[in-house]
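Figure 2 data, in text form.
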Amino acid sequence: MATTAPSELEPKLLPAGPSESESLLSSLVYDTSQQFQMAMSNMLKMITEIDQTAGGIMEEIGKCNDTAFERKKELEEEKQRFQKAAYAVLGMLNDT
């Protein structure tokens, strides 16, 4: 039974000459660079979209804060009116 060395079974992946090797390496670097640029462009678009959305959310939060403050003010005024009315009724009851 004859044994075969592992190197004899593997296909030849290395190019024949140095110029072909440089060409493949150059092509690989170029493709990787293109993929990286596309990924960076996509991330920049997502960051811009996130910033715009965050700006809208912050604006809505500001509006809600303003509305809540106005409502609190109205409730405080209504509370004071009820207290005055209650004190007036108590005063009338005490006078009788």
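Caption note: The chain is about 85% helix and 0% strand.
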